[in-house]
Automatic annotation (TrEMBL):
Pfam families registered for this protein in UniProt: ABC_tran (PF00005)
Species this chain originates from: Erwinia sorbitola
Keyword Transport in record: yes
Topology with respect to the bilayer: Peripheral membrane protein
Protein name (record): ATP-binding cassette domain-containing protein
GO cellular component: plasma membrane
Family note: Belongs to the ABC transporter superfamily. Drug exporter-2 (TC 3.A.1.117) family.
Subcellular location per the Swiss-Prot or TrEMBL entry: Cell inner membrane
Annotated ranges, domain ABC transporter: 2-242
InterPro entries in UniProt: AAA+_ATPase, ABC_ATPase_HisP-typ, ABC_transporter-like_ATP-bd, ABC_transporter-like_CS, MetN_ABC_transporter-like, P-loop_NTPase
Keyword list, A-Z: ATP-binding, Cell membrane, Membrane, Nucleotide-binding, Transport
Length: 246
């Protein structure tokens, strides 16, 4: 479903991702763990092309793209790849001047050229799925963090992406509110949504992910099933990091 081969990303000459090779199977959930600054967000952003890698190859479904530092990636290529992905951010990033339902309809109407009636129907379907239909006409600022994140998940899912990328989806939430977001993500996982999520939340990772990737200083140190990695990691660096998670 998703394949990254030999991905390299530098910022001002500093390598941030080094020779990243990663395959994500359809319907699987992969947790991306690692210390702050290890490159988790950058890796997610390289998959939806919010950042452009300098080298390597990216495949999402039937879409394929090669990067070469000297060659610019066209807007058309960015759109083609980006449309395969949905992204959920740590701080929700809802549009404050749009109501809950408008937040979800916006991209469907402006980017995907759906008719408003069709977009509204899709938005309502997703709001029901994340348990937020009763807030459809509310302003984002009036919602709890957990509610905002559930709306953000609905928005990310609206165009039916091939993969949902989540960057620390519960990190800004109190434990109690994070539970409701974990529950929504768990339901999606059960339904077979392919997901890649950067997280410090052991409960989220152990509860939902089939696979865990440990990233340190821009390199994949170890990958494994979540069961193996959390209970019997092979590399000392992985073990040391996992012991810091709570
Ligand atoms: P993580 O999400 O694991 O905390 P990040 O991907 O945010 O790590 O950052 C990895 C490294 O890349 C850090 O050293 C960070 O300072 C650097 N970095 C991230 N984004 C940029 C940017 N836009 N410009 C320059 N450096 C960046
Ligand atoms: Mg990050």
């Amino acid at each position: 479903m998703i394949k990254l081969s030999s991905i390299e990303k530098q910022f001002d000459g500093n390598p941030v991702l080094k020779n990243i090779n990663l395959t994500i199977n359809e319907g699987s959930v992969t947790a991306l763990i690692g210390p702050s600054g290890s490159g988790k967000s950058t890796l997610l952003r390289c998959i939806n092309l919010l950042e452009i890698p300098q080298a390597g190859e990216l495949t999402i479904g039937n879409e394929h793209l090669s990067f070469s530092g000297s060659q610019r990636v066209s807007r058309k290529d960015i759109r083609r790849i980006c449309q395969q992905t949905g992204m959920v951010f740590q701080n929700f990033q809802l549009f404050p001047h749009l109501t809950v339902i408008e937040n979800i309809m916006e991209g469907l109407v402006t980017v995907h050229k759906q008719r408003p009636a069709q977009a509204r129907e899709r938005a309502e379907e997703l709001l029901k799925k994340v348990g937020m239909i009763h807030k459809r006409d509310a302003w984002p600022a009036t919602l709890s963090g957990g509610q905002q994140q559930r709306v953000a998940i609905a928005r990310a899912l609206a165009p039916s992406p091939k993969v949902l990328l989540c960057d620390e989806p519960t990190s800004a939430l109190d434990p109690e509110l994070s539970l409701e977001v974990v529950a929504v993500l768990k339901d999606l996982a059960k339904e077979g949504m392919t997901m890649l999520m950067a997280t410090h939340d052991l409960r989220l990772a152990a509860n939902i992910a089939n696979h865990v990737v440990f990233l340190e200083a821009g390199e994949i140190v170890e990958t494994g099933t979540s069961r193996d990695l959390f209970t019997r990691a092979e590399k000392p660096r992985t073990k040391a990091f996992i012991s810091t998670l709570t």
